[in-house]
Amino acid sequence: MKLAPSILSADFANLATEIGKVADAEYIHIDIMDGHFVDNLTFGANVVKALRPYSKQVFDCHLMVTNPENMLDVLKQAGADIVGVHYEACPHLHRTLVKIKELGMKAEVVINPATPVSVIEPVLAIVDQVLVMTVDPGLGGQVFLQETLSKISQLAKYKHQHALNFEIEVDGGINDQTIQLAKKAGATVAVAGSYVFRVENPVERLNALRIGAAERR
User: Fold this and answer.
1) Is 104 annotated as a binding residue?
2) Average pLDDT of 143-151?
3) CA 89 – CA 109 distance, rounded (Å)
4) Does the annotation list 44 as a binding residue?
5) What is the DSSP string of 154-173?
C-alpha cells in the first residue's frame, strides 16, 4: 500500500524539512484549499513549486477549490504529478479530468463522504486515481468515518469487473488501525496527516502504517 503523508498537518514554517522526514513515503499529499469550497485556506501552486526541488516523490495535489480547472496550468508548471478534483466542484468533470491528462499529469476524481460512487462511474475509465474522503473535507485531525468503507469496496469491485487499474486512495482519520480497514476494503493509497506529522518521530509512524497495512483481519 502506498503512503501519502499530508503536509496539511506539517509545520508550515519548515515544510522542506518536514517532507524530508518522510522521504521514504511514495507520495507527498498537498491539500490546496481556497476558503470557499471548504472553509480553510491553505497552499497554492506557489508552495508546490517551492517544494519541488526538495523532493523526488510524487506530488499528489488535492484541490478543494471552486473552479479547479483554472489552476491546472499553473500546477503543471509548478511540478504537480497527480491532480485531484472534487466531483462536487466540477460542473464539467469529464472535461476537467481530460485536461489534467492532456497536460501530462495523472487525473484523480474525489468524492465526499455523502457522495455515492455511482455518480462518478462515467469517468472511472479515464482516471488514474479515485480519492474517497473518509472524513468531511477541509480540516485535519478528524475521526475516520467507517460508513465510507462500503464505497471503497464498491469501487474495488467496479475496478475488477471492468478491468480498470486506477488507484483507490483514502483520506481522513488514517492511523495504524483504520489503514487495515481501508486496505481490506480495497484501498491502495492512504493519506495520513496528523498521525504522521504531529509526533516526534514521523518515520516510526510511517513504519506503523506499513505494519498496519500488512495486517490481516
Assistant:
1) no
2) 96
3) 10
4) no
5) HHHHHHHHTT---EEEEESS
Average pLDDT over residues 69-77: 97
Determine if residue 31 is labeled as part of a ligand binding site: yes
Write out 25-81 in H/E/C secondary structure: CCEEEEEEEECCCCCCECCCHHHHHHHHHHCCCEEEEEEECCCHHHHHHHHHHHCCC
What three-state secondary structure class fits 93? Answer: helix
Is 92 a known ligand-binding residue? no
Taking the C-alpha atoms of residue 4 and residue 29, their distance in angstroms, rounded to an integer, is 5
Kindly report the average pLDDT of the chain as a whole number.
Answer: 95
- Active-site annotation, residues: 31, 171
The answer to the question of whether 193 is labelled as a binding residue is: yes
- All structural domains of the chain with their residue ranges: 2-213
Residue 98 and residue 126 in contact, taking contact as beta carbons nearer than 8 Å: yes
Grid-cell match 469529464, residue found: 94
Q: What is the model's pLDDT at position 216?
A: 58
The confidence band for 138, taking pLDDT boundaries of 50, 70 and 90, is confident
CATH 3.40.50.1010 correct for 2-213: no
Quote the pTM value: 0.95
pLDDT per position as a tens digit, 171-186: 999 999 999 999 999 9
